[in-house]
Every structure is written in C-alpha cells, then in structure tokens.
Amino acid sequence: MSSPSSSTASRPPPNPSGTHNPAEADFLPTRDEMERAMSIEIVNQDNEKLTLGELSKGSRKKRVVLIFIRHFWCTNCQVYTHQLGLSIPPRNLPEGTEVAIIGCGSSAPIKTYTAFTSSPYPVYSCPSLELHKIFKFVRTLQTADTAPKPSPSSSKTSDNKSESDNSNTKASQGNAMGADTSSTCGAGHGGSCSTTNETTIGYLDGVGSETKRIWLSIKNGPFKNFGHYSTSVRGPNDQNGGEMIIEADGSCSFLHRMQNTADHISIEELARAIGAEYVPLSEAERKWPG
C-alpha cells in the first residue's frame, strides 16, 4: 500500500458494487486530507469536544488505531466492537499503540454503547460526519448478502442495479423504528454468507440469522433507549465506517473502507496490520446476548 501523497487530485470513489476490492476502495488519504482531519472535532461520552489531532497527539503513543463504526444501534458493529476487545485486548497492543472507537451520532449513546459492548477502548463520535467525508467512508444500505459476488477470474464485478435497489427498499422499510435492517452477515474482509442467508462466517458467526440481528437492533435500540431514537443521536443508518492506522507523524499507513453494512476488516487481519497478538475466540465467546 502506497504512502499518502501531498496531492489533492481527485481519487477514484470507493467500489459501488458492495464487494471489497482493496486496490480500488482502500487508497490512503492525501497529506492535505490528513491535515484537515486533524482539526475536526469529535466528542467523548461526556460531550467534551476535542479534535482528532488532540486525540492522536494527546499522549506519547506512537500510533492510533481508529475503528469507525456505523450507527450506535448497529448489531454488526456492536458485535465487532465486543470481539475486538476480546481478540485484541489492550495488553496485546504493541508498545506505543492505542485504539479508539468513533461513531457517527451524538455523545448521548456512548456510555450505553461502551457498557453493552464491554469495550476496553474509549468510544468517541463525530456528529458532523466531517471525518467520514474527508476519509471518503461509504454511505449505503447495501448488505453483504446482496452485494454482487466477484467472479473467480476477476476481483471486479458488474453492479446488479435491480438487486441493489431491492436491498435498499427492504432496508428503508425497516427504518420507521430506526431498526438496523441492514444487520446482515459479513462478507469480504469481515466474513461471508451462505446462499440461504441463515448462517454466517467471520465475526458474525454465532450471532444468528438476519432476522435475529434485525430484532436485536430493535430490542437493544428503541425498546431500551427511546431517547436515542433520532438519527442525529444514534447516527445515520446508511453511514458506514472502516478501520485506519494513524502514525506518530500524523500520516495514515492503513485504511479500510466498509463497502457494505458488514464489511469490517477481519479482526485477525487488523491484528496483523497493527502488529498485535490475536486471541482466537471460542464458540461461547462468539455468541451475542439477546
């Protein structure tokens, strides 16, 4: 992966097909984009404001690993955050490395999210979505199981528009209560689906079917925290995130952009990128409450 350039020339957009082609989707931010990002404000659980630069340079750590999640009710991201803390606990991080989670809503759900996911890492949010815009994180409700599958001979695939439209329609119908109807099985870096969409591999293995994950999103979202109902509080349903590593000099050495609602990079792969010891999870540890 190449180093960030100082050029501000336009870069190719993330792959619109919903499948993950790292060569197309995971280009690094430019130096100018990183400088702009450092001035963007985020908030902590007490609604205290700080800039990304203050977060990344506020200690003597050499590197900061940022996990950008979707909205705070997203079952996929809740599972990912929970398993991240188990498979890459703070004690396994290389010296001089820290990890932070960044959401896309207000500060209000952060304490609930941290407790529910048992995250050992601090959780912040970027209500303005300015970081998401600078880093070109994708906005889509396309799910992993409806993304066109790459052909064996090529990593590229044509965009099946009607299938994508059907997926977005289905997701939109479930948004009346803010339910995460996009909480489907992982694909690409995060895992993959069976043709029946009833079993999964990857970080969502052991969580249950698509129907169960939709129910969990509703039960653990509006049913328990109705005050977090607004998209301005929990975050937009269609805003995806990704994972990145910011070095001590402020440059970005690694960036993965989610191309669908479950496309987090596998935690084992993230551990390799960080240089952290990865802890495999047992079947019991992979199960999700609910």
From TrEMBL:
- Composition-biased stretches (Low complexity): 1-10, 145-157
Composition skew (Polar residues), residue ranges: 170-185
Segments of this protein annotated with the region Disordered: 1-30, 145-192
Which InterPro entries does the record match to this protein?
Answer: PXL2A/B/C (IPR032801), Thioredoxin-like_sf (IPR036249)
Q: Which Pfam families match?
A: AhpC-TSA_2 (PF13911)
The entry's protein name is Thioredoxin-like protein AAED1
In which organism is this protein found?
Kwoniella heveanensis BCC8398
What taxonomic lineage is listed for the species of origin?
Answer: Eukaryota, Fungi, Dikarya, Basidiomycota, Agaricomycotina
